[in-house]
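Backbone geometry tokens:
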Amino acid sequence: MAWLGLALGMIVTAVGGWITQSGAVARLVTVVGILAVAMGILALVSENVLDVAAREGLLVALLAAVVFLWAAAILRHAGSDGSPAVSGCSCA
């Protein structure tokens, strides 16, 4: 599960930074993306150090960060964050 979350965290970090142009939203997405990758690495390497509840908490936080970044990218693509929609969007 940690491998999957780590892979998703790295993907959404790259996509999230690409989707947002600049400003506070870009900084927020970058920070959350870096935290997602860090939580994934920590969950992966802490198998013998942390107990099961702590590792599950890390995985829940990791997946919450992935979902947040996914939602931010979707909102940016649709133009719902106050910026113009990404060109090529056939949204009505």
Q: What stands out?
A: The chain has one domain: 2-78.
